Amino acid sequence: MRKTNEGPSPVGVLLPSAVVGLLATLLLMLVGAIFVHRRVLAEQAIAPCALIFLAVGCALAALMAAKRAPGGKFLWAMGAGILVFLVLLLVSVILLAQPINVVRMAVSLLCALAASALGGFAGANMRKRKKYRHLKK
Fold first, then answer.
1. What's the pLDDT tens digit per position in 81-99?
2. What is the mean pLDDT of the chain?
3. pTM summary value
4. Which of 32, 34, 60, 81 is the residue whose CA sits 20 to 30 A from 128?
5. Over the chain, what HEC string results?
6. Distance, CA of 85 to CA of 82 (rounded, Å)
Protein backbone atom coordinates (compact mmCIF):
# COMPACT_ATOMS: atom_id res chain seq x y z
CA MET A 1 0.00 0.00 0.00
CA ARG A 2 1.18 3.46 -0.84
CA LYS A 3 0.85 6.21 1.65
CA THR A 4 -0.32 9.54 0.29
CA ASN A 5 -0.18 12.99 1.78
CA GLU A 6 -3.88 13.55 1.26
CA GLY A 7 -5.89 14.03 4.40
CA PRO A 8 -9.54 13.30 4.90
CA SER A 9 -11.96 15.22 2.72
CA PRO A 10 -13.97 18.12 4.16
CA VAL A 11 -17.09 15.98 4.07
CA GLY A 12 -15.24 13.22 5.91
CA VAL A 13 -14.31 15.64 8.68
CA LEU A 14 -17.44 17.79 9.02
CA LEU A 15 -20.28 15.38 8.33
CA PRO A 16 -19.59 12.74 11.03
CA SER A 17 -18.79 15.48 13.54
CA ALA A 18 -21.99 17.38 12.79
CA VAL A 19 -24.07 14.20 12.94
CA VAL A 20 -22.66 13.33 16.37
CA GLY A 21 -23.25 16.89 17.57
CA LEU A 22 -26.83 16.89 16.27
CA LEU A 23 -27.59 13.51 17.81
CA ALA A 24 -26.18 14.62 21.16
CA THR A 25 -28.20 17.85 21.06
CA LEU A 26 -31.42 16.10 20.12
CA LEU A 27 -30.91 13.37 22.71
CA LEU A 28 -30.35 15.96 25.43
CA MET A 29 -33.45 17.87 24.28
CA LEU A 30 -35.46 14.65 24.45
CA VAL A 31 -34.28 14.08 28.02
CA GLY A 32 -35.19 17.69 28.84
CA ALA A 33 -38.65 17.22 27.34
CA ILE A 34 -39.17 14.10 29.44
CA PHE A 35 -38.15 16.04 32.56
CA VAL A 36 -40.58 18.84 31.72
CA HIS A 37 -43.36 16.32 31.08
CA ARG A 38 -42.76 14.63 34.44
CA ARG A 39 -42.62 18.06 36.12
CA VAL A 40 -39.04 17.55 37.31
CA LEU A 41 -37.95 20.60 35.32
CA ALA A 42 -39.90 23.86 35.48
CA GLU A 43 -41.17 25.45 32.28
CA GLN A 44 -39.09 28.57 32.94
CA ALA A 45 -35.95 26.45 32.65
CA ILE A 46 -36.66 25.28 29.08
CA ALA A 47 -34.88 28.15 27.30
CA PRO A 48 -31.67 28.02 29.39
CA CYS A 49 -31.57 24.24 29.14
CA ALA A 50 -32.00 24.43 25.36
CA LEU A 51 -28.98 26.76 25.19
CA ILE A 52 -26.95 24.39 27.35
CA PHE A 53 -27.95 21.42 25.18
CA LEU A 54 -27.01 23.34 22.03
CA ALA A 55 -23.66 24.26 23.56
CA VAL A 56 -22.92 20.65 24.50
CA GLY A 57 -23.80 19.43 21.01
CA CYS A 58 -21.69 22.11 19.30
CA ALA A 59 -18.75 21.51 21.63
CA LEU A 60 -18.91 17.77 20.97
CA ALA A 61 -19.05 18.31 17.21
CA ALA A 62 -16.13 20.76 17.39
CA LEU A 63 -14.07 18.41 19.55
CA MET A 64 -14.60 15.56 17.12
CA ALA A 65 -13.85 17.72 14.07
CA ALA A 66 -10.67 19.09 15.62
CA LYS A 67 -9.44 15.60 16.40
CA ARG A 68 -10.18 14.34 12.87
CA ALA A 69 -8.89 17.37 10.94
CA PRO A 70 -5.46 17.18 9.29
CA GLY A 71 -4.59 20.86 9.76
CA GLY A 72 -6.27 24.11 10.75
CA LYS A 73 -8.07 22.25 13.50
CA PHE A 74 -9.72 25.31 15.02
CA LEU A 75 -11.37 26.31 11.73
CA TRP A 76 -12.67 22.79 11.19
CA ALA A 77 -14.06 22.80 14.71
CA MET A 78 -15.81 26.12 14.23
CA GLY A 79 -17.25 24.85 10.95
CA ALA A 80 -18.69 21.77 12.62
CA GLY A 81 -20.29 23.83 15.39
CA ILE A 82 -21.77 26.30 12.91
CA LEU A 83 -23.09 23.40 10.84
CA VAL A 84 -24.92 22.00 13.87
CA PHE A 85 -26.44 25.43 14.56
CA LEU A 86 -27.48 25.95 10.92
CA VAL A 87 -29.11 22.53 10.63
CA LEU A 88 -31.13 23.11 13.79
CA LEU A 89 -32.07 26.61 12.60
CA LEU A 90 -33.20 25.34 9.20
CA VAL A 91 -35.23 22.53 10.75
CA SER A 92 -36.99 24.92 13.11
CA VAL A 93 -37.73 27.50 10.40
CA ILE A 94 -38.56 25.29 7.42
CA LEU A 95 -40.02 22.09 8.83
CA LEU A 96 -41.59 23.36 12.03
CA ALA A 97 -42.53 26.80 10.59
CA GLN A 98 -41.53 28.64 13.75
CA PRO A 99 -41.13 32.41 13.59
CA ILE A 100 -37.62 33.81 13.93
CA ASN A 101 -36.83 35.86 17.02
CA VAL A 102 -33.65 37.72 16.04
CA VAL A 103 -32.43 38.29 19.60
CA ARG A 104 -32.91 34.66 20.60
CA MET A 105 -31.23 33.50 17.38
CA ALA A 106 -28.25 35.81 18.03
CA VAL A 107 -27.90 34.51 21.59
CA SER A 108 -28.05 30.93 20.32
CA LEU A 109 -25.46 31.69 17.64
CA LEU A 110 -23.08 33.26 20.17
CA CYS A 111 -23.58 30.30 22.49
CA ALA A 112 -22.85 27.87 19.63
CA LEU A 113 -19.74 29.84 18.60
CA ALA A 114 -18.38 29.95 22.15
CA ALA A 115 -18.99 26.24 22.69
CA SER A 116 -17.43 25.43 19.31
CA ALA A 117 -14.36 27.46 20.22
CA LEU A 118 -14.00 25.61 23.53
CA GLY A 119 -14.50 22.23 21.87
CA GLY A 120 -12.06 23.17 19.12
CA PHE A 121 -9.36 24.20 21.58
CA ALA A 122 -9.85 21.02 23.55
CA GLY A 123 -9.74 18.82 20.46
CA ALA A 124 -6.73 20.59 18.95
CA ASN A 125 -4.72 20.23 22.15
CA MET A 126 -5.49 16.55 22.68
CA ARG A 127 -2.76 14.17 21.74
CA LYS A 128 -3.47 11.66 19.05
CA ARG A 129 -2.71 8.05 19.80
CA LYS A 130 -0.13 6.61 17.49
CA LYS A 131 -1.54 3.73 15.49
CA TYR A 132 1.57 1.61 15.39
CA ARG A 133 3.20 2.36 18.70
CA HIS A 134 3.50 -1.31 19.56
CA LEU A 135 5.86 -1.87 16.63
CA LYS A 136 9.47 -1.04 17.37
CA LYS A 137 11.64 0.61 14.78
1. 999 999 999 998 888 787 8
2. 86
3. 0.83
4. 81
5. CCCCCCCCCHHHHHHHHHHHHHHHHHHHHHHHHHHHHCCCCCHHHHHHHHHHHHHHHHHHHHHHHHHHCCCCHHHHHHHHHHHHHHHHHHHHHHHCCCCCCHHHHHHHHHHHHHHHHHHHHHHHHCCCCCCCCCCCC
6. 5
- Say if residue 114 is exposed, middle or buried (CB neighbours under 10 Å; 0-12, 13-18, 19+): middle
Residue 118 to residue 100: CA distance in whole angstroms: 27
- Binned at pLDDT 50, 70 and 90, residue 43 comes out as confident
d(CA 57, CA 35): 19
